[in-house]
Amino acid sequence: DGDRVCGAELADGSRIDADVVLVGIGVMPNVAEVEPNNEFTAPQAIEKNVTIEGVIQNEDQDLFVIDAKQGERISVEVEGIRLADFMFDPYVAILNEQRFELASSDDAALVWQDGVASILAPADGKYIVQVRESSYGGNGNCHYRLHVGNFPRPLAIVPSGGKPGETLKVTYLGDARGPLTMDVTVPSTWAERDFAVFAQDDLGIAPSGNIFRISPLDNAVEPLEEANETRETAT
User: Fold this and answer.
1) Rounded Cα–Cα distance for residues 177 and 86 (Å)
2) Which of 130, 168, 173, 231 is most exposed, with minimal Cβ within 10 Å?
């Protein structure tokens, strides 16, 4: 939570305390945010499939531009509140060259108060990714990691759990390219309380996982086509 302290007791009985600091780990290369990049007409140019390390100041917005082809998936995910540096509530959006907002996200349930957005590019051209504090606040403590690329970014998974040690097929839902099915092997013990699975396809892997719950019970999955809405067709 950003305020936790860990420590060690030395041989002479004295104690050293230190703040716990979170370190982000990802598969994409890091790129530094470069100011000035807060004007729509002069965003920072970046390649796809990078992680941008930046800071949001008061009344600040950071803008980044990429090139994309029609039908190409553009996915963005921002880590702000999850870095635990500050009570930073980020907002993220994808805009076209005409400044129309094609997708936006604030307080996505999947990633706490952070945001995720994913689209299929409607035409060849340039696309602008915007990140800011949701109410245009900010300060030198509002650090973020912004992932921009072609990676899958599903919002949910079915089933959302499984029995220890079993391998089962799961379907990721909510990605711009549609459902994605993968095999998941569940840990053999319950020790991994925060076990998560990462969606992966031919274009990459999601920056963060979907929580997958471990339970000794069998799954009974409601049909996705909702064919159980009467007593006669009950599952």
Assistant:
1) 34
2) 231
